[in-house]
């Protein structure tokens, strides 16, 4: 607020401008005439000061939007200049009196926030986004049935920087009937020793697909192995604490270790996974990620995951999950918006204690997506997975996907899917329309 | 009992791993040189001009890459976690990739609002700030103004001054060194600017078409008249109907130059050029767009040489 005083200096500078420019216009500027050169220098100076002040105004506006920007940078010379120009006479102006010169927290300096508010209050609002996900399907699937038309999900995202030490992210997933807190967590970004922590409800770092929201998947549905072994669409998504850190590694290799502890409830009726029978029945995930740029356009991403929790079979039964994920990406930088390829796959082993005997199921998917043109993508996926509680029942499937992007903010996708559940063959066609409103924060790579 | 002990063992392993990692990591703060990471090569070039050998500078994006669509690769995190200062273009140019990198870096120094985060747009003259209601019917609009502001030598000077002041704040012992280097840079830039202005003077008011809205500041400084864009809306690929309109407009206005960034497909610009007799010029929006262009000065030298040649041949 106090810096608004300096804004009063702008009219003064603007008034001074025509005087200089008139003189300058009279005689075309030439460097070899010392008077003109000096004049030009003054004009340049004035221009620079106006531009600097405009920049400060923009900064002030955005600082109101993000209270964390209080310690925001101000160029020494310009702030001195504007402070000098602002002087005592601006104190009598209509501006509210500068609260305090000390850099106190901006939140304490916003008296106008309650009630009518105005633009300042709006500026403090978090980024709000809504992603609509409409799915139409044809074909009969008795195992995993889907309606002909459904507004599958409407994901409301509310995201903001909380303070200089943290940011907050909420994703509420509205079905046609109910609402589900898909994720809601604080990320502590200013911890010592390079640690980054999350507290709240979030998708667990088991492999790749489990961490991803529906709208960033390269397919309309999730792979069979996710449905059979890793709690389906919701996945391991639970309230808990996560700590991650980049590990030292040979040059050029990125290595990151994540440890997470959850309450121990994951999955739904159709895709049960973990259940907490008592407060000590927490579930946990450990994930190690290794990444390397092979060239500037090609990179490889490998991960190993482990998770465990108490199974839905009963309070004395554990389920262990082991996973390996791999991705190879190619995107030529000079034509990055036109062509790219991603090949990815995940292998997952499940060890589920139950009566009469422990079930050890294995599943995987392998997929590839190629970007043909700026707006067109084709892809395919092969699925194969045992069932968590009947490991010798194997489901297999294959999908072909075609995606069209009218713009960055909408997407139309078609998918043909063949699935063989045991001896039952199922053919399905899906059509999806996704659209994004507002400022949805970027997702991690 | 057995259950709990198994679990605490797991926790202990995790905790040990994290602590071991924490202890093994090198302490970058001991190094004398400031580690500066910039989002684009132009900011890196300007930082090098004022920072000299007292700073290590690295850019995330390459000069021949579309700065809107950089992938937030984990390898960039390795640079960011060691950084003392992160300089961004701002105005939401990097909105698709920089925020998650900053969050995941585990580096409190460069978080938005911390002393090690510098938004360079605050120093520059910003054009095309949308008035009134902004909707995405306009395409991928930047509600805070056009972020391609560095291609004006006056803005280059202002940004360099801002960076020099920032470096002096962070490394007070070398403050005089940075100011000295800035003054030297300013002098060289003014001399170069006079040369560029003189070279471009005969072509003031010439009409051009650009692919994306990347050139407002350049066009303003050198008094070029941008009459249209190959993209119908920012971020929307060319459509046949818009291309036809553009061809008619170029014929009517007798516009003979189509400026294209190196990361766009040349098919549509070339077909427009065939229809209108115009020339397609692949100019460089950023330092490092071709190997030989490694400084802010060479960037203008290169582009102005291309442009003057094209203007001469399409007289």
Explain how this protein is built.
The complex is a heterodimer of chains A (445) and B (315). Chain A is of the alpha+beta class and 445 residues long. Chain A has two domains: 4-100 and 112-122, no CATH class; 126-438, Beta Barrel (Porin). Chain A is 17% helix and 44% strand. In chain A, strands 1-2-3-4-5-6-7-10-11-12-13-14-15-16-17-18 form a 16-stranded antiparallel beta barrel. A two-stranded antiparallel ribbon of chain A has the order 8-9. Chain B is 44% helix and 11% strand. Chain B is built from ten helices and eight strands. In chain B, helix 5 (153-170) packs antiparallel against helix 6 (175-200), helix 6 runs parallel beside helix 10 and helix 8 (240-253) packs parallel to helix 9 (267-276).
Topology overview:
The complex is a heterodimer of chains A (445) and B (315).
Chain A: H1 4-7, H2 9-26, H3 34-65, H4 76-86, H5 119-123, E1 127-138, E2 149-163, E3 166-174, E4 179-188, E5 195-203, H6 224-229, E6 237-247, E7 253-262, E8 266-267, E9 272-274, E10 283-293, E11 298-310, E12 318-330, E13 340-352, E14 359-373, E15 376-386, E16 394-407, E17 410-421, E18 424-438
Antiparallel strand pairs in A: 1-2, 1-18, 2-3, 3-4, 4-5, 5-6, 6-7, 7-10, 8-9, 10-11, 11-12, 12-13, 13-14, 14-15, 15-16, 16-17, 17-18
Helix pairs in contact in A: 2-3
Chain B: H1 2-24, E1 34-38, H2 41-51, E2 55-59, H3 74-80, E3 85-88, H4 98-104, E4 117-119, H5 153-170, H6 175-200, E5 207-210, H7 216-221, E6 225-229, H8 240-253, E7 257-260, H9 267-276, E8 279-282, H10 296-313
Parallel strand pairs in B: 1-2, 1-3, 3-4, 5-6, 5-7, 7-8
